[in-house]
Amino acid sequence: xxxxxxxxxxxxxxxxxxxxxxxxxxxxxxxxxPDGKLIGLLGPSGCGKSTTLYMISGLxxxxxxxxxxxxxxxxxxxxxxxxxxxxxxxxxxxPHLTVKQNILFxxxxxxxxxxxxxxxxxxxxxxxxxxxxxxxxLDRKPSELSGGQQxxxxxxxxxxxxxxxxxxxxxxxxxxxxxxxxxxxxxxRIQKETGITTVFVTHDQEEAMSISDMIVVMKTGxxxxxxxxxxxxxxxxxxxxxxxxxxPPINVFSGRVKGGTLYIxxxxxxxxxTVADQEVTVGIRPEGFVLDDxxxxxxxxxxxxxxxxxxxxxxxxxxxxxxxxxxxxNADSKIDIxxxxxxxxxxxxxxxxxxxxxxERIYFEVK
Amino acid sequence: MVESKQQWKAWxxxxxxxxxxxxxxxxxxxxxxxxxxxxxxxxxxxxxxxASFHFGFGNFVKVAQNAEFKQALTNTIFLCLITVxxxxxxxxxxxxxxxxxKPLQKAxxxxxxxxxxxxSIAIGMxxxxxxxxxxxxxxxxxxxxSYGIVNDIIRxxxxxxxxxxxxxxxxxxxxxxxxxxxxxxxxxFKILILLxxxxxxxxxxxxxxxVDSTPRWRVLTRITVPLLSPMLAYVVITGFIAGxxxxxxxxxxxxxxxxxxxxxxxxxxxxxxIYDSLASNNQGRASxxxxxxxxIILVVTLINLWVSKKRVHY
Lengths: 367, 314
Description:
The complex is a heterodimer of chains A (about 375) and B (about 325).
Chain A: E1 3-12, E2 23-33, E3 38-42, H1 49-57, E4 64-69, E5 72-73, E6 84-87, H2 99-108, H3 118-131, H4 147-159, E7 165-169, H5 177-194, E8 197-202, H6 205-211, E9 214-219, E10 222-227, H7 229-234, H8 239-244, E11 251-258, E12 261-264, E13 267-271, E14 278-284, E15 289-291, E16 297-307, E17 310-316, E18 325-330, E19 342-346, E20 351-355, E21 361-362
Parallel strand pairs in A: 3-8, 3-9, 6-7, 7-8
Antiparallel strand pairs in A: 1-2, 1-4, 4-5, 9-10, 11-12, 11-14, 12-13, 14-20, 15-19, 16-17, 16-19, 17-18, 20-21
Chain B: H1 7-36, E1 38-39, H2 43-47, E2 54-55, H3 58-65, H4 67-100, H5 105-117, H6 120-131, E3 134-135, E4 144-146, H7 149-156, H8 171-199, H9 203-211, H10 216-244, H11 248-254, H12 270-279, H13 283-311
Antiparallel strand pairs in B: 1-2, 3-4
């Protein structure tokens, strides 16, 4: 089931009656979510990602715009009739019911021609439990489960009624780091097995990048960029997206273009003929640095962190907008921390320049 | 653990409460138990110098043999069994409704809470006025000047007027008035407790139920009631305890005669029996009746706790 969001906007009225200040949580969101894909809504807190999810679920009504499931306009349809599965951030498992009763609950609500007999319901519940691998926990109460197990029960409860769309609100935020890695793979597997169009919300870019077919990066209610995770990472539309994606984060410098050459501080980093002279912000991915004794970019090294396969060199540069410049280079490279400068060449496809005023990407061609 | 040197301070701070409790709670309890077993004991006679009494179960036997005892016990149990479930279910429905509405919520809350802060004798008198038929009721050709508001309403809708509480009235008519009064009087406390419980239920359970297309009635019975069960258990247990102590409502409506004029004492309750014994200067019998009442309340509460162990989800 594809989901179409058309000019979707949500405005919250001001809490303070005097100021009449409205909060635009989601601003003119347009997106067609392809059928059977896993989509990550990504952004810092307050960016409108959860609001978008809740509008798709119907728990919140959009101020304007439309939502389609397939060709059906569901904008005015109440949550009950949308046929969605929703996994809440805190799972919202009914504490007084056992795992089995929790999973059966949505099935017992079915009426009319959808009504199921007892055996079918039990079979469906058992299948859902098997899918998330909790079939041995069916008689426990939620309070007797670990966070990861509760999460699986919540997914099973959402899946058991075979929803048209599965929505997950920060599904991994309550899990510890190890379980998080494991569970996100599980979510990916379950989504692949069921083929249900799935939208999930997260503030963790690594999480979104690792399992999504497509990510939507949002900021203050406005969609910044939509695309495949790798494409968005390799080709960010603006400074915000470039900064938001990637660990360690991108290095940002203030620079300028003059006479077809890009300068960072006094260092002439690269020839870019196609860009007019202007002040710019330069972003370089940590893996974009290449150690080169004749390299144009000169940084003062402060520290070397060995991370096994790779080595991270921490240094400073006068033009850097971050306190530190961090590069990741091959562990075989020899680094002399005592020397005054570490010199880098920069891989052209790992360097992005942005307008200083609008922070929009300025595209260039390397000569 | 507090150092033993400091312990006298703790006792000092506790002293005011402990002294008052000892004088006005603990000693009377001990005294009541003792007096219940003292036959032919009279506080008044003791002051007069006659302190003759002997120990035995005679007081209990006399209470049980009292012609009114069976009636009082039946009345008490009957009122409990009707009013506690009715008021609890009504309070639950009102609390859920109050919780669901936004406009006027505070105002309605206040209105529903008003009976709690109003004197129950005063409420009883108002109820009496509402059900009172003024005139020569019970005579062959009654002359009636006012039927009371309730009968006026019944007559407005074409019904026949009922002799609710006056001379010649039916036992069940009396009971009906009492039940209405007691239920109404018991509602505010229960609504308050249940409303408090409702606000503490995580809203996400309701959103989850909505996502799962749960019908309203099922949300109430399968989600709200179980999640509210600790409060419901509390309300039912305290409701039964209050119900077994029922007395003021009857005095409020029927006066100290505890019944309509032609059948005084017909509506007596266990607590009424205790007061009657005291009024006839028979502390021993009053104490015995109090202990019997205590025993009944204890058993009922234990049953309540036993049931709630299975039904309540903490």
